[in-house]
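Changelog-adjacent note: as of this version, every example in the card shows the full chain rather than a window. The one below runs 82 residues end to end.
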Amino acid sequence: MFKRLFLVAMLGTFAIGSAFAQESCESKAVGKDGKALAGAAKASFMKKCMADSCETKAVGSDGKPLSGAAKTSFLKKCEKGA
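Full-length structure tokens:
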């Protein structure tokens, strides 16, 4: 019983966390004039925003920043949302 409850709570936490991450980039997609970006400008902004957010998460289990192939692999997975 408790294992199921814990599992549901953890899955909910991850789902909410990814929704907030998406929302933060989405909410930041505003031009200098205060209007929401659209089309290619929005796509470009979203790609850069997601890359920047993944860059800050690229840390190994020892707390040190990843580098080389490990970093490249992590960034690819993170930007795809996997």
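Structural remarks: The chain has one domain: 2-80.
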